[in-house]
Automatic annotation (TrEMBL):
Protein name: Nucleic acid-binding protein
Pfam families, sorted: SSB
Keyword list, A-Z: DNA-binding
InterPro entries linked: NA-bd_OB-fold, Primosome_PriB/ssb, ssDNA-bd
Signal peptide residue numbers: none
GO cellular component term of the entry, any: mitochondrial nucleoid
Length: 153
């Protein structure tokens, strides 16, 4: 009897659909969240078409300190992430940040394939991660070098 009920239910069951959209495909998301310190002042650059953008590096450490020889603790290895900001509305905020500022960054992750160089002997190159800036929150601001007047605060 139970098997008859299951068969009846499965034959009338519909494929789940999203009620809020007529689209049959869900949007895929590839997002990275970084909380770390700027490795240098953000740098203003221009694309080949002349559009301004900023690049900045964020240093992060993952994990607990590692015990070395003699029981001495060493900080975990540092990972460096280069972020590209094409959003001109965020540029004024980036101009006010300096090396050492602690930031929260949300970025879109795009994997770009390695382009082999004929002069390169390294044929086992990996794809590169391209981080496109989406959101920035400042946790602790350090003045950029251009704003420092040489006096200690």
């Amino acid at each position: 009897m139970l098997s008859n009920i299951i068969k009846a239910f499965s034959s009338t069951a519909r494929t789940p659909t999203r009620a809020f959209s007529s689209s049959s495909r869900a949007l895929d998301i590839s997002k990275v969240i970084l909380v770390g310190r700027l490795g240098a002042d953000p740098v203003l650059r221009n694309t080949s078409s002349g559009k301004p953008y900023y690049t900045y590096t964020v240093a992060t450490n993952v994990g607990a300190p590692v015990e070395g020889e003699g029981g001495k603790l060493h900080p975990p290895p540092t990972s460096w992430h280069t972020v590209f900001s094409f959003n001109e509305f965020q540029h004024p905020a980036l101009q006010k940040l300096g090396k050492g500022s602690t930031v929260y960054v949300e970025a879109e992750l795009e994997m770009r394939p390695h382009e082999p160089n004929s002069a390169s002997t390294d044929k086992y190159r990996y794809d590169r991660a391209f981080l496109k800036h989406q959101k920035l929150s400042v946790i602790n601001r350090v003045k950029p070098e251009s704003e420092q007047d040489g006096s200690d605060e």
